[in-house]
## 1
Amino acid sequence: MFISLRELELRTVRFSVDIPPGEIDYDGKITQSSVLHSEGTAQLLNHSLGEIRVQGDLNVGVETICDRCLEAARFPIENHFDLVYMPAADARSRIVDEIDQGGIDVGYYDGNGLALDDVFREVVLLALPMQVICDETCKGICPVCGENRNQRDCGCQAEAPDDRWSKLEALRAEIAPHN
């Protein structure tokens, strides 16, 4: 769905969209596993500056690779978003402090409007954790043999810690506050 500046000059645009899996590209690392549903509004904040505010709610299921075991990890995302987009052509001459509303993120758009698919893609990517794990109890991959320790305990012995750090560990223990 594309929201044009002309339409926003006339009125606030309300949207309710369902986007099936496969229509939005998430950099190849993430796949959408359910229909993305979003409802919200888009409005022009300042007619002379072309600032567009998009706010609403988004629900979707995504799948990616676990950072510990390299198996599939599924995440439900339910997120409220409140974003402001400014024209990219004017970005160099603007000061971000012009927007005095707390909790609002600022992005940029090219052309005469904003594609909602780009907004949804950004919301989904920002909602994912920095480290993606399939489960809090994930044991990961054995650093010796590469076996997935969630499926089978390989019995490998971990290498001895690097002794070069032992003096620093002793120093840390010595200067730590005594409880």
## 2
Amino acid sequence: MKKIFILFFILSSLAGFAQNILQKPGTIDLISMFNKNQLTIVNREVKVGKEKGNDYIEFLLNEDEGLAWIEGIDFRTGIIELYLKGQDIFQHSFLGIAFHGDNDTTFEAIYFRPFQFQTTDTLRLKRAVQYISLPEYTWSKLRETQSGKFENTVMPAPDPNDWFHARFIITEKEAMVYVNNKPPPCITVPLLGAKSGKIGLYTADNSGGSFANLKIHKDN
């Protein structure tokens, strides 16, 4: 009887650990989730790779938005960290995170335009990081109606062809983004979208991109 009780306790503990592991701070194993079909891929071909000893997943270029929703995580507020790598190719490198998603067309996103990181064009320089809330608040609508409020420069400017670290702080009302742990935040924006809980990786139209070392710190 004692052995049965101990076994039940161990199994219960393991079940609780499995249920709560994604709610605790720590790295999300994107490669394992991809291999186990725990990423819902939308409108992209995805492959895995390794660079400098680090595993990553890569979205191949395609038209329209591409997503990889992370199954089993309901995210409302907290901190998201990861490494990203785009390209210095004009109008062909847009990558970041999607959050507060309801479905494949209704979500908020913050993404980078690496080809704007080090441009000498002062106007383009101010458009290196962008917030959107689809389907209503596209980048073009926000730029037309509230110019400069939902996009900004990234300083110090990362190498547009190399990996950079991004830290997204999501509260009930706003989002702040730090790049390579350099203060101040490169952008602080009010949130405009619904508060559903889907979270994932994001690339915009005509873009691929690479993602590694994802960490999600949920507030609850």
## 3
Amino acid sequence: MTVTTRTVEEYIVAFDDWRTEAMQRLRELVKEAAPHSAVAIKWAQPVWEWNGPMIWMKASKDHVSIGFWRGAEMEDPSKVLEGEGDRMRHVKVRSVDEIPADAVKDLVRQAVKLNTAKGNPTLGR
């Protein structure tokens, strides 16, 4: 399913199933942990920025992912991050009840700190 949207809200409600509720909850968690971040559709998905992009969210057929540009640099005591690349990591959610709220908020706070200290992760390495 390809979703063409202009706003984050349009992206979220376009799925009209459990993924919409999960993305709304994830958006609330990001707002709680990084209230001054900006969010917009970039790369065809919601992207939060603070001194450059730091978090993305994407709905797939059977899950919703919330990802972190600097995920490979983050501490993950709850062991919720997935991925094997040298930079990004993500959390896969398969139901609203499965959202690890405290872990997500911690990761969001780490993303803000990393982008504050290191700048835009899309500009060089």
